[in-house]
Amino acid sequence: MTWEQLNQTQHKVVQILTNSIHKDRLTHAYVFEGSRGTGKMEVALQLGKSYFCKEKTTAEPCGECSDCKRISSGNHPDVHLISPDGQSIKKQQVELLRTEFSYRGMESKQKFYIIKHAEKMTPSAANSLLKFLEEPEAPTIAVLLTEHIHQMLNTIISRSQVLSFTPLSNREMEMVLVDEGISRPIAKILTEMTSNLEDARQLCQEDWIVQARNVVLQLTEEVYSRPQQMFFTLQEKWLPHFKGKEELGLGIDLLLLWYRDLLYTQLGEKEGLIFVDQLERLDHQALYSSQEKISRQMSAIFDAKRHLSSNVNPQLLMERLLLRLQEG
Q: 197 near 35, Cβ under 8 Å?
């Protein structure tokens, strides 16, 4: 990642930090607060690179020097990361951090620390951290990452510069995913299924979302033109892929996206389509459907999603849904 790339999704935060780098006015402690998947860790690591990189001519680190490469690989001797030990960050972890602060850097006088899930510090850990935030060892920078700033000590917040990370818009998230090598059709689906970038990346692992989309496309085609095949596909492909309530819920969400696209196509409103590579199929199905029929099909999907919260048999749930979709 570069500051220019990060600027596309967190403009305000990046502008504040890069201006501080230009003016050599970085503060000793930052709180990065915002929902999961908004890039807090990426920005923290980029800040660390800018702090240590000796080759940079602007705020942008070179990315090629030993400092930059070791920060990227997670083995820089003067960059430390604290994460919860189990359910919390304990006083012992913070005390070890304070000890590290008291040492001179192994290769320079600088030190840099990132504390993940800072709201999970125990009271004793938070008070221990407060002591060394009040008496910082210069030149050092601590970055505290949190999704729940209201759970942190006000005294810690008051001694830090708070930077708020805003959730990504669908368009911003799509651009990030495409830049990471994900195809546009898959990226568009992911932005509809989650507003969390990390969750989107998780769904891409082992091509789960690609396979899920293929199963949905096959099933919707069979509902439309080959109803005698749809229960076979349900048994052989749908149920083995969508395991458990959470995954089954995602599968039903995908079905809803297809029929929503079908309704938009029927209405001639193609601007917001998600299945952007299936325009011919959408046009064909829309030609032989009606708005009323598609609305009934979408209602059936909503009903199935509601019933999913109860202890219903997944196969029976889907069989009923497919029958209702086929009948329209």
A: no
Report the run of H or E that residue 25 belongs to, with start and end. none
The two tokens of residue 242 are: 């969508």
Alpha helix ranges (H) inside the chain? 3-7, 11-22, 40-52, 66-73, 91-102, 123-134, 154-158, 170-179, 184-193, 197-204, 208-225, 227-233, 239-241, 244-267, 279-287, 291-307, 314-327
3-state secondary structure of 141: strand
Token reading at 133: 């935030």
Tell me whether strands 79-82 and 111-115 are parallel, antiparallel or unpaired.
Answer: parallel
Ordered DSSP codes for 272-315 = T-S-TT-HHHHHHHHHT--HHHHHHHHHHHHHHHHHTTSS--HH
Q: Which long-range contacts (CB under 8 A, 24 or more apart) does 97-100 make?
A: 97/129, 97/132, 98/128, 98/131, 98/132
Of 162, 167, 176, the closest CA to residue 8 belongs to 176
Locate 80 and state its tokens: 């430390």
What single letter denotes the amino acid at residue 102? S
How many CA atoms does the CB half-sphere of 135 hold within 13 Å? 7
Question: What is the C-alpha separation between 188 and 167, in angstroms, rounded?
Answer: 16
Residuewise pLDDT in 10s, the chain (328 residues): 899 989 988 999 999 999 999 999 999 999 999 988 889 999 999 999 999 999 998 999 999 999 999 999 999 988 999 999 999 999 999 998 878 777 665 566 788 999 999 999 999 999 999 987 877 666 889 999 999 999 999 999 999 999 999 988 888 889 889 988 999 999 999 999 988 888 899 999 889 999 999 999 999 999 999 999 999 999 999 999 999 899 999 999 999 999 999 999 999 998 889 999 999 999 999 999 999 999 999 999 999 999 998 878 999 999 999 999 998 7
Task: Output the DSSP codes for 215-242.
Answer: HHHHHHHHHHH-HHHHHHHIIIIIHHHS
Cα(136)–Cα(67) distance, integer angstroms: 23
